Amino acid sequence: MPDRKLNDASVDSELARLVVDQKLATSPEVQPCLETHARLSAEGKPTPLGDVLVEAGVLTVGQLTRLRKALEETRGAQQIPGYRIESKLGSGAMAHVFKARQLRLDREVAIKILPRQLSENAEYVERFYKEGKAAAKLNHPNIVQAIDVGEAGPYHYFVMEYVEGPTLHDELELHKRFSEAEALRIVIQIARALEHAHKQGLIHRDVKPKNIMMTKDGRVKLADMGLARAATDEKAAQAEAGRAFGTPYYISPEQIRGEVDIDFRADIYSLGATLYHLVTGRVPFDGPTPAAVMHKHLKEPLVPPDHINTSLSAGIGEVVEVMMAKDRDERYASTSDLLLDLEAIQAGEPPLQARRQIDAKVLKGLATEAEPPEPQETAAPKLERNALAAIVILVAALAVSIVVNILFLVLLARP
After folding, report:
1. What is the largest CA-CA distance in the chain?
2. CA 127 – CA 335 distance, rounded (Å)
3. How far is 350 from 226, CA to CA, in rounded Å?
4. DSSP state at residue 211
């Protein structure tokens, strides 16, 4: 299994470090392989360290393939001028993320890099730069700050603030459910971030626990503007018409339908689904496939969160009901209104904005029920008219009979 592309001292050293860091083997297990690798090179039989590790049974072929791929990604990241890559933070369908140091300012940053195979797709490249530009418009303590965006050789990169800490998704995996007080503390901060973004004319369109970062000092930050779009960007809206952009567990009904005029209320729905997950320990709708889950968002009534977790206040149930109304006209009229209710519940007060929305919905329903039906002829009037006609006919017949009898008697009385 020769590997000429990665066969150099620096890569071999990095491979050995990765094997230990990822706990695929211990340093004492790797050390003999390093010695064998050095001996073969000295004998004029240079052999990639990866092959030596597989031959010794320290790695499997599959593990080596994955490590080589990770090394190639890291080497690409190292080409970005002004930054030194320190470690890989994670990978997604759209990008690899690395922890790095910005050399001029001597500070830690995170760098998102578009994979090479996607760099050849103009649509992905355009979306990648849109993310950077969207994030650059936002300056808020609860939003991950954008620093730079650019291109280095075949790689497109986006530099952002490094947030040390887990995602909200990680915390949910660990704790399963949050107290009402802690859930409110988190969601209020994200609502403030969204309020700022919405005032700048941006919709996030992918609010979910994986895109919420938790810092060590208790601050919460909204991340990943990959699906963000200007509310007034009609060209982008038309190009995406009929396509469902978002994450099935948290996506709004109008996003599922691929509607063109998506607005801030889609983010309110997704934040409501996130709040639901935090306080109940489960997503609002589940199913065997993404399509099944999305169908439930469209059609299935929401089980109120306080019916699942009976320790919750009625107020938080009311707020989630309005946030996740299937008809967006029945949701909050603004992110600021939502914040008023969240902060009211946090202070032990009723959510007045939600109650107004619920009362308006009830009144609308009553008004619909109270509309007078179309006038219809009932059986009773018909019977009355038929009886009257029969009486008239009977009277007429009787009158004729009387006249005939009188004439008959007159004729008999003549001599």
Report:
1. 166
2. 26
3. 36
4. G
Contact at 8 Å (CB) between 191 and 335? yes
Q: Is 225 part of any domain?
A: yes
CATH number of the structural domain spanning residue 94? 3.30.200.20
pLDDT at residue 413 is higher than 50? yes
**Catalytic annotation present for 3:** no
| Burial status of residue 353 (CB atoms within 10 A of its CB: 0-12, 13-18, 19 or more) | buried
Q: Among the listed ranges 39-53, 161-175, 262-276, 329-343, which one has the minimum average pLDDT value?
A: 39-53
- Output the CA–CA distances (angstroms, integers) from residue 197 to 184, 215, 281, 382, in the order listed: 20, 20, 28, 66
Residues 210 and 251 in one domain: yes
Under a CB-based contact definition with an 8 Å cutoff, are residues 88 and 70 in contact?
Answer: yes
Do 298 and 267 lie in one domain? The reply is yes
At residue 43, the pLDDT reads 87
> Can you give the residue range of the structural domain that contains 132?
76-162
Rounded to an integer, the average pLDDT of 99-105 is 91
Q: How far apart are CA 168 and CA 323, in angstroms?
A: 20
The contacts of residue 134 (CB under 8 Å, 6+ apart) are 202, 225, 228, 229, 230
Helix and strand numbers, DSSP H then E, in the chain? 17, 9
**In this structure, what token pair is assigned to residue 127?**
């979306």
Given the residues 12, 51, 206, 341, select the one marked as catalytic.
Answer: 206
C-alpha of 225 from chain center: 12
Q: What type of residue sits at position 154?
A: P
Residue pair 53/19 in contact by the 8 Å Cβ criterion: yes
pLDDT tens readout for residues 201-239: 889 989 999 999 999 888 999 988 755 555 444 544 445
Helix, strand, coil percentages (3-state) for the chain, rounded to 5, are: 55, 10, 35
Q: What are phi and psi of 158, to 5 degrees?
A: -135, 115
Pairing relationship of beta strands 229-230 and 202-203 according to DSSP bridges: antiparallel
What does the pLDDT read at residue 45? 85
Please check whether residues 238 and 363 belong to one and the same domain.
Answer: yes
Q: Are residues 34 and 101 in the same domain?
A: no
Instruction: Return the pLDDT at 403.
Output: 55
Domains contained in the chain, number: 3
Residues 221 and 338 in one domain: yes
Instruction: State the pLDDT at residue 380.
Output: 46
Based on the fold, state whether residues 147 and 60 are members of the same structural domain: no
Task: Give yes or no: residues 357 and 226 share one domain.
Answer: yes
- My answer on whether 96 and 224 are in the same domain is no
